[in-house]
């Protein structure tokens, strides 16, 4: 097994023997075998262990076991405790994803701080097969079919040629102790469902399913390399750079084989998912003017190009206006004031000035950009009107629409800034106090 691992490390160019390797050790059979094999290769190793506090005393037992293992071998030991459930709740991710984010971010900190070249993790052939099946079930492209990479950035996976069964056999032959994670037997997690419910059925069809999947993944990786070369070649012909924007030629995109795949590879780094890209591709056949959003970018379907732009910080932010504010500098300049209603008051005709019944307002007011489904009650009307319809009626261009700000009182839109006030907060004969805003 050691010879096979050495050959795999050399073939995949994972690392050189004189480079320092940080080994992620959970205490399970895979990470214990990985550490043993790397030590037999005489690689300088450090041990990193995460306590996610998901299994009470069992998690603490894992810590004690891994620390003793590192001490017995005379290896540097690093550990960290995480409140995984809190992180998952705050970031709205699964426990699995939370644990993944926490450990890899911390591993990278240790790697940098203590001059390790790579981080070695214990993924093996079973993990590859399970990952491909998970990706297929959730929906994937060629990248998902290529499974877990032997080397990705600073992460190396020397155990990919070996099955879980082989790791258990090696640990027994070499009298290695390890910890068994009790949650591995549960089926609450997606991976465990694949492992305990799907893989046994596939094994009945093909007893060598893990080896078959590993070989399939090797071929998929070769196909992925060809795919990437074609994408990169066509990318240069499709894209024009205009300032910070990317312009994707619609005419050239339509001439390509698999235009949706090309578009996905261009847009996915900017937060667009498969469904988003499919919708954008469908919009190419329609009229210009449609906008599509990721969390950080937007795509405008223009006449000749798909225009990819970063959403500015102003577009992402919401501004609060308290009663004490008299001058606003951001996102634009505006003067704000309260005044008593007098007989000399005249309604302003200038669209840059808005006057409201101050007693009808709920502070703090909010300034934000429009969102799909927004509606208000234009002054003089009795019913509500969608902002999207208002924009059409006023013949707003795409740019004008996207640059328009809304002033809100509670959940009500009270001013399409610089264009139209809301009827529900207008000044009436009963108004005694006026709130005045003027764009500078």
TrEMBL record:
Localization (cell): Cytoplasm
Keyword presence, Transferase: no
Catalytic activity annotation: cytidine(34) in tRNA(Ile2) + L-lysine + ATP = lysidine(34) in tRNA(Ile2) + AMP + diphosphate + H(+)
Pfam short name (any one): ATP_bind_3
GO molecular function: tRNA(Ile)-lysidine synthase activity
Chain positions recorded as ATP binding sites: 26-31
UniProt keywords, alphabetically: ATP-binding, Cytoplasm, Ligase, Nucleotide-binding, tRNA processing
EC number: 6.3.4.19
Enzyme class (EC, first level): ligase
Family annotation (InterPro entries): Lysidine-tRNA-synth_C, Rossmann-like_a/b/a_fold, TilS/TtcA_N, tRNA_Ile_lys_synt, tRNA_Ile_lys_synt_N
CDD domains named among the record's database cross-references: TilS_N
Domain annotation Lysidine-tRNA(Ile) synthetase C-terminal: ranges: 365-439
Similarity-based family: Belongs to the tRNA(Ile)-lysidine synthase family.
PANTHER family: TRNA(ILE)-LYSIDINE SYNTHASE-RELATED
Domain notes: The N-terminal region contains the highly conserved SGGXDS motif, predicted to be a P-loop motif involved in ATP binding.
Function as written in the Swiss-Prot or TrEMBL entry: Ligates lysine onto the cytidine present at position 34 of the AUA codon-specific tRNA(Ile) that contains the anticodon CAU, in an ATP-dependent manner. Cytidine is converted to lysidine, thus changing the amino acid specificity of the tRNA from methionine to isoleucine.
The protein's name in its UniProt record: tRNA(Ile)-lysidine synthase
């Amino acid at each position: 097994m050691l010879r096979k691992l050495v050959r795999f490390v050399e073939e995949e160019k994972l690392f050189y023997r004189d480079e320092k390797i940080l080994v992620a050790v959970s205490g399970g059979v895979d990470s214990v075998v990985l550490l043993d094999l790397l030590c037999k290769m005489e690689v300088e190793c450090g041990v990193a262990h995460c306590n996610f506090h998901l299994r009470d005393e069992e998690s603490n037992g894992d810590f004690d076991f891994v620390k003793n293992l590192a001490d017995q071998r005379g290896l540097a030991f690093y550990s960290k405790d995480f409140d995984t459930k809190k992180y998952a709740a705050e970031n709205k991710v699964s426990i699995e994803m939370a644990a993944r984010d926490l450990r890899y971010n911390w591993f990278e900190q240790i790697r940098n701080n203590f001059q390790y070249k790579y981080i070695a993790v214990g993924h093996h052939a079973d993990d590859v097969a399970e990952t491909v099946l998970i990706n297929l079930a959730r929906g994937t492209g060629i990248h998902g079919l290529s499974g877990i990479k032997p080397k990705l950035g600073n992460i190396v996976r020397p155990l990919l040629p070996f099955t879980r069964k082989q790791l258990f056999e090696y640990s027994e032959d070499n009298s290695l102790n390890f910890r068994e994670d009790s949650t591995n037997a549960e089926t609450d997690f997606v991976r465990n469902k694949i492992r305990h419910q799907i893989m046994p059925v596939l094994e009945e069809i093909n007893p060598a399913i893990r080896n078959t999947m590993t070989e399939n993944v090797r071929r998929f990786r070769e196909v992925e390399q060809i795919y990437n070369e074609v994408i990169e070649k066509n990318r240069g012909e499709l894209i024009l750079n205009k300032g910070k924007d990317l312009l994707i030629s619609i005419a050239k995109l339509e001439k390509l084989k698999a235009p949706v795949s090309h578009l996905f590879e261009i847009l996915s780094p900017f937060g667009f998912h498969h469904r988003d890209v499919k919708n954008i591709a469908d919009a190419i056949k329609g009229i210009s003017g449609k906008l599509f959003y990721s969390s950080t970018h937007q795509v405008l379907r223009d006449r000749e190009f798909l225009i990819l732009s970063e959403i500015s910080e102003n577009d992402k932010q919401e501004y609060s206006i308290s009663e004490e504010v008299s001058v606003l500098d951001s996102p634009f300049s505006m003067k704000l004031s309260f005044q008593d209603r007098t007989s000399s008051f005249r309604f302003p005709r200038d669209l840059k000035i808005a006057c409201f019944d101050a007693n009808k307002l709920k502070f703090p007011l909010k300034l934000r950009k429009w969102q799909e489904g927004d509606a208000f009650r234009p002054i003089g009307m009795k019913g509500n009107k969608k902002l999207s319809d208002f924009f059409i009626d006023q013949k707003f261009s795409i740019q004008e629409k996207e640059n328009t700000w809304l002033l809100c009182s509670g959940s009500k839109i009270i001013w399409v800034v610089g264009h139209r006030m809301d009827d529900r907060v207008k000044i009436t004969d009963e108004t005694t106090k006026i709130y005045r805003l003027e764009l500078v």
